[in-house]
Amino acid sequence: MSDQRPPSTALSTSHQNVALAHPSHLWADPDWQRFWLTLDRLPWKVLTLIPAGEGAPLDFTLSMAVMLSRTGMTHIGEPIQVADGTQIPLNQLNPFLAEVRACTEGGQRVIVALAPAGSNATTASIAKASDGVVMCVMMEKMKSRDAQRTLDLVGHSRFLGSVIVRPDGSMAPPPPK
């Protein structure tokens, strides 16, 4: 990692002390574990988490990335890097993507946290450069039209799925079948 890049481009192993908006014990929750196991079956080295829209705390996807990384490390016993892509300016886009690529070339997986697509010009580009995208929806805080705009900006085919989270960080139950 270069010392000349702003902290917003830093990759960090998820076991570092990161201020979480949600309780840190959620990584051990069975719902988070099921979420991880679902994602682990899919072919990805770089996974991006993108909010459906505005309305969640600024660290919404970063907190989720850290929890997912912790859950995954518990499962596979190897580091899973977390990259904070929530504030990447245009002039740092290429160095950020190069840093993520360097991690994957070294055999590591990376989970990238992104800002809402409508609030950061680089969000869609970072998402498109990944192997897959998960739309993160905070229940009762985000609008469906913002989610549709996010899908359109990133491209429907890039999405692996979505996850609905309550404001307390717990998973919302799936809809009835």
Span from first to last CA?
47 Å
CATH topology descriptor: Rossmann fold
Number of strands: 6
Q: What's the alpha carbon Rg, rounded to whole Å?
A: 15 Å
Please work out how many helical segments DSSP would assign. 5
Class based on secondary structure composition and strand pairing:
alpha/beta
Mean of pLDDT: 82
Q: Mind telling me which CATH architecture this is?
A: 3-Layer(aba) Sandwich
Number of domains: 1
The fraction of residues in strands falls at: 15-25%
Provide the low-confidence segments as ranges. 1-23
Per CATH, the superfamily is P-loop containing nucleotide triphosphate hydrolases
Strand order of the largest sheet: 1-3-4-2-5-6
Q: Which term fits the overall shape?
A: globular
Description of the molecule:
It is a single chain. With 177 residues, this protein is an alpha/beta fold. It has one domain (7-165): P-loop containing nucleotide triphosphate hydrolases (Rossmann fold, 3-Layer(aba) Sandwich). Helix content is 33%, strand content 20%. It contains five helices and six strands; from the N terminus they run βαβαβαβαβαβ. It has helices spanning 30-40, 60-76, 93-105, 123-128, 144-154; strands at residues 11-13, 46-51, 80-85, 109-114, 132-138, 159-165. It has a six-stranded mixed sheet with strand order 1-3-4-2-5-6, sandwiched between helices. α1 (30-40) crosses α2. The radius of gyration is 15 Å and the shape is globular. The termini are far apart. The model is unreliable at 1-23 (pLDDT under 50).
